[in-house]
Amino acid sequence: PRYHADTTQIKVLANKVTGEAEAQALYAKLETVVERYLKVPISYLGMIPQDPQLAKAVMQQMPVSLENPKARSAIAYEMIAAKLTNKELNKNLTKRGMAAFFSHIISGR
Fold it and tell me: What is the pTM of this model?
């Protein structure tokens, strides 16, 4: 009731999945239900893998990208941020995680 099918964009992020195959299967099921009952198209944004480093960072109340920038989940968040901002993820950035990524976006380089 509060959205318009022609202007609403729903992007799905699969969380705590074991891999891309599980994420895609989850999305396919959700897409079927949403299309049937809500009649709104959804699109797949990406996935955040089940990652013990993410759980550890949450327990320490620290962003995983700062706690462990090389964690699978931190890399997944970087990829999603790149998609959302329509930026190509620069693989040559110093590996500092999300801090480096957002600094790169803000500086416009």
Answer: 0.70
